[in-house]
Amino acid sequence: MAHYLRVCFSIFFTTVTGAALEKCPTSCQCDWDTHSMTCSGSNMMPRFPLSTQEVYISNDNTLGYLEKHSFYNLPRVRHIIKTLAFIDCEAFKNLPNLKYLGIINTGIRTFPELQHIHSFQDDFVLEIVENALVKVMPANALSGISESLIVMLHSNGLREIQRFAFNGSCLEEVYLQRNMYMDQIDKFAFHGVNCGPTHIDISETKVQSLPSIGMEAIEKLQAKNTWTLKVLPPLRTFIHLQHAELTYPSHCCGLKMLRRWKGPSEMAICNLSKSTLTRPRDSSSSQLESYDSDDLQSARMSNVPVCSDVDCENKALFHVEFPTENPSEGFNFALCNSVGADTELVCYPVPDPFNPCEDVISQNFLRPLLWVVSLLALSANLLVMLTLLTSQQKLTVTRFLMGQLAFADFCMGAYLLLIASVDIYTQSHYYHYAMVWQNGAGCSLAGTLSVFACELSVYTLTLISIQRWYAIFNAMRLDNKMRLRHAVVLMIIGWALCGTVALLPVVGVSSYQKVSVCLPMDTGSTAARFYVVIVLMMNVTSFLVVCLCYLHIYCMVHNPQHQSSKYDTGMAKRMAILIFTNFLCLVPICFYGLSAALHQPLITVTDSKVLLVLFYPLNSCSHPFFYAILTKDFHQDILMLLNRMGLCQKQAHLYRSQLLYLGNIILSVSPAPNQQRSMSQSHSLVRS
Ligand SMILES: *[C@@H]1O[C@H](CO)[C@@H](O)[C@H](O)[C@H]1NC(C)=O
Ligand SMILES: *[C@@H]1O[C@H](CO)[C@@H](O)[C@H](O)[C@H]1NC(C)=O
From the CA of 251, how far away is ligand 1's center (Å)? Predict the structure, then answer.
């Protein structure tokens, strides 16, 4: 019987019997045919007929507030919708048949007091929406309303849900979405609920964490576009979850794992409990108990071999912990009914190819390798830098570039160490940290470091090759050498260039947040694709330059008109190795770059991590050895350093005289790059 008349406020009522109605209140017009009453111009509530069933109070200025006992003694009211500015704390009192209360688009500032409603209706619908000034939901806000509640609190100005807010209520569905400023749901907000909630929606809020208490009954969880919710509570919390619509795919990884793992282990326990239940109860209860307990123990044991592989260990995170010696205690046997393939958890958004459900480093054999590689790169390059810095020899172009190269490779080592640490820290539950890590400053730092290191290393390497080639090309003209100031200027340009390239993803061109290893693989926009392709081209170009330089050097040195063929083979070998490692290093960059540019991983991200660990840092590990540690030059520096520290004085002396001798020989031979260096060093040796 829905008759709508909304002048100021209309009261709809029905008479159940033909009993005589009360007389029409003053300032109201009653239409006895449609059983409706329209009142206007009144600044207080009229006395309602006893048989009133629905009350609609529309937006109007004359009725400014609902005073005490507004709906007093109206046992049949089932439906109240109101839009007002003020509600007295006892406005709603003793409304046993109320089934729906809507407080919509009002100017109220505090959460209305609803504790005295005491409705006997099931599935009471409470709709408090679009009240921009309601900021806080206090404790016990919903207690005493009804036996079971559907709570719609969306689109309010709620900022905070205080502890015990839902205390004493029996919840079914709780809608909290589109409270744009809501950032806090207290840990104990759902503490003390008599039952439920089974469905929670916190989409489009700023909630940062969900309470873990009182979530056991949840079957459906919605948190779409809740970008701040980066961490879910422990997944054990959601034992009955069947449907989840979340913001981040990684959370679905965790939730899906939970369900998959629970299958077999629970099944074993449930099977046992079933079989003990159906067993004829001829044995005494104590015997049965001990049998039961033993069997469950062994069931747990028998799970161990099943869980020997890595995947399963990961899932053991959600192991249903048995708190006591007796494993059946504390196990929720209600779960037995919900186990089965048909209750597979539905979760959105599903993980994409760039973010599969896996750890940062998913293959176990890569983990130790990553540590070895990163520590090697760090220590070797640190050694080179320290030696160069403490060396008392003259700073030549070569030594300067060596130092730059070592620094770049050191940064790469630092990046790898960072990734390795994050991997160890988040091992087997990365999905839990994925969004915190990938959207955080740490990942930006790692990505910047990685790209900067890689590009600076490539740039410096190219410079070194060009410098060597130039030195040999102009070997006969000593005045035509690359000078230190040229090198410094070129390196400053290099730093600026690499810094820009590394920082672009931070400021929005592409992004480091796409993958767990923090490389710029986001190619959503044209600018980002352009960026990735440019970086790729830079790397390929410099690789080609390096190749050409070394090939030309080789041809020049190999030329019989050049005098120094005895250094040929060694040099050729070294060049070949350098070019080869360079090429290997380029492979993952190409793979990453091309997959990003083509929007499709060429190989799975999981596999590409092998490239990342094994090939990408290859240069960083090999450069310090090829360019410094394995050279005579460096040995001499080290000896001098030790000598200064008072160690190995005899060897140093010996070495020094050897070098002097060698230097004298070399002086008379044509200057190949190494020889040139030894030459200048022997000069400085002579001087020292
Ligand atoms: C929770 O509600 C119960 C009654 O339902 C009450 O006795 C208790 O004091 C409330 N707890 C808090 C902390 O308000
Ligand atoms: C549980 O029992 C069912 C049949 O009742 C069987 O198919 C299943 O393999 C059993 N599971 C375990 C883990 O023992």
Answer: 34
